[in-house]
Amino acid sequence: MSILTVNLKHLYQRRGFWLVYVILGLFAFAGIAVLFKGPEAGQGRFTGFVVLAPVVGLLLAVLPIEVLSKPFSYCLPGHRKVPRRFVFCVGIVFNLFGSLLFFVYPYLNAGQLVLVVCSAFFAGLISYLLVAGLAFGVRNSVAFIGLLPLIIVAGQFFDLHTVIEGVIVGNPLVVILVGVLSSVLAWLWLGDARLARRYCGVPGIGSLDAWNRDKMQKYRQVRLAKKWDKLKKHPSPWVETFFLGRMNRYDYVSTGRYIWGGLYTAFGIALSQLSQWKEAFSGVFLALVLVCFLGYMGPGRNILFIMPGFIIAQMRLPVYSSMLISGGRNERYRGAMTLVITTAVLITVLVTIVAALSLPLAAIMPDITLRGRTFAFYAMNIELFFIPLLMIPIVFTIQLIFYRKPIFMMLLIMLLFMLLFWHEQFGAVINPMYIVSPVVLSWVLFLLVLRYVCTRRSLVGQG
């Protein structure tokens, strides 16, 4: 069995990809079903596989990167060249099947059809190799999958699918020539030995590692260590003095010392970074960019209030641990409770301040006209400030219950996110006159679940 064959076995041995195959299969089925309505030319109906090719390239290119990160792979002869063959093998097969759709393209004779099919094959291969090369060039590039919805919306708005189809059919020779040249460049780029050395022993996030609690924990520990190393050169003395001063007020095994230690671990790096003027300026600038972007989204601008609930899903409470630590059950309960309350208050204040920035901007931001459509800037609905207070305890409750089943945990959190995001009138999700009861109920539920977990469930072990 060749080394390439062993690497290709990851495509079916990794069970997490089975769900990805189902999702990609549904998209492919939808793209083919559109053609049965009538293979009309110039409508962009044939370019669905060109849209899927970058997604496939990003997800599958990360697999050989994960293998390269294991130092043992360097003991295998010729393994450094396998990623290139792996990427091209999958890309050629995928785009070969996808380009066959153009055989039913109307108003073309046999010779033109063959030429257009070749053009479609290289068009898909160009987009596939472009993103695959990006995956090798940028570490943790799998995070770019989060930009996919934005890219799809932008593509629909600017009719990129129609433009791509026109280029494939109208300029087949140019597409084929560019495809051949890009394939040669990608072959040379992916065969560079420096890529293998770059990823050897370097931890990273794989295609489906977001569902793997152990891998994400190890990756966070490495990142945390690197951040602390950087901060050693320019620490913020007041942060250390503030937290250690309050920790020293309590005994070594007291609850108060455990609580302040948890807060120091959670917010120490962030406060040290924000105390530097460059980091503070970057934070303010990003807040302004976010407000300007969301302000032109119309009703979708209020997504600002539910974004924190989705982001803090990556946060881990000091409850479960795979190591023997000093904190007992009571310390973990009070420490986690204090951390969640502090996080909820800080996030609610920050989100409200960011939303308040949109009020003066609404009077000065101009209308933007694109392709005959006018986009006006709208201020955020500050009356929805309570949504982080509602979402944060719900998210942490789901996290506590499904801690050992991260897939279920993320699916439920995403479902909660989607229910709020795709509501027709998000501004009326909860009447401001009745915000107290759902917020109180969510916090009561969280405290009851946290109390049960900390007093009854096993808090140690590898899961």
What are the defining features of this structure?
19 helices; 2 strands; 2 domains; mainly alpha; 463 residues; two-stranded antiparallel sheet
What topology emerges from the helices and strands here?
Layout: H1 3-8, H2 10-13, H3 16-36, H4 48-68, H5 82-99, H6 110-137, H7 148-157, H8 160-170, H9 172-190, H10 193-199, H11 213-231, H12 237-247, H13 255-274, H14 277-295, H15 307-311, H16 329-361, E1 368-370, E2 373-375, H17 387-401, H18 406-421, H19 436-456
Antiparallel strand pairs: 1-2
Helix pairs in contact: 4-5, 4-6, 5-6, 6-9, 12-13, 13-16, 14-16, 16-17, 16-19, 17-18, 17-19
Describe the protein in words.
It is a single chain. The chain has 463 residues and is mostly helical. It has 2 domains: 3-207, no CATH class; 213-456, no CATH class. Helices cover 66% and strands 1% of the residues. The chain contains 19 helices and 2 strands. The chain has helices spanning 3-8, 10-13, 16-36, 48-68, 82-99, 110-137, 148-157, 160-170, 172-190, 193-199, 213-231, 237-247, 255-274, 277-295, 307-311, 329-361, 387-401, 406-421, 436-456; strands spanning 368-370, 373-375. A two-stranded antiparallel ribbon has the order 1-2. The chain is globular and about 85 Å long. Residues 424-429 have low confidence and may be disordered.
